[in-house]
Amino acid sequence: MSVLSVSLSPAHDFSKQPQSSIRLLANHGVENDSHAGTTVQHRSRLRITPAPPNLRQVHLIQSELFAGFRGDGHDLHGGAGGKNTDTYEVRPGDLGENITTVGIDLLGLGRGTRLVFLGDEGVEEDRAVVVVMGLRNPCWQIDKFKKGLQERCLVRDEERRIVGRKAGVMGVVAVGGVVRPGMRVVVEAPDEHLPLECV
């Protein structure tokens, strides 16, 4: 379980640019990223008053989903209701995530799961912690990025009702620090498993 890539964007662009490292700031998010802040920063929610707390400080996606989009891998958390044969090339940062992981079933985690990022032993700044708060709701901007991809980020039952989402998870920074590709990720589950809902 590790970090494949890290990304940020200082502007409210859909995709984020890969970086050699990012710095997480406690109770704030990714330094110099447009979605950092103690209150919600996503444009679709800026009109809410008073501004709600930012439960979307850090966006994480498991890289295994990209293989499913390409059609050459196991489509994690797929659903019934018809097979989509369209393929999409998606790279780290393309869907606006800050951290792209390998080997972690992020979508299967419970609310309150702690993700501990470990780098060089003995380096205190290499122990950032993100607490998973919920699922990202696949929005219309995904289709604007690549037409048809939003539907691939949804799981539907036999009656075409949405029963799941595959656009990653959102979290808050509990402990700040540097995160970079290659770091190990330790998953610390909460005492009680609460399924993730959209935040």
3D architecture notes:
It is built from three helices and 13 strands, in the order βββββαβββααβββββ. The protein has about 200 residues and is mainly β. An eight-stranded mixed sheet has the order 2-1-6-5-11-8-7-13. A three-stranded antiparallel sheet has the order 4-3-12, with no helix packed on it. A two-stranded antiparallel sheet has the order 9-10. A hairpin with a 5-residue loop joins strand 9 and strand 10. The longest helix is centred in the middle third of the chain and has 7 residues. The chain is globular. The two termini are about 25 Å apart. About 5% of the residues have low confidence.
Any chance you could write out the topology, listing elements then pairs?
Blueprint: E1 2-8, E2 17-19, E3 22-25, E4 29-30, E5 58-62, H1 64-70, E6 99-102, E7 114-118, E8 129-135, H2 140-145, H3 149-152, E9 154-156, E10 162-165, E11 169-175, E12 177-179, E13 184-188
Structure class: mainly beta
Whole-angstrom Rg: 16 Å
Shape: globular
Which whole number gives the mean pLDDT? 86
Termini, distance in Å?
24 Å
Question: What about the largest sheet?
Answer: 8 strands, mixed
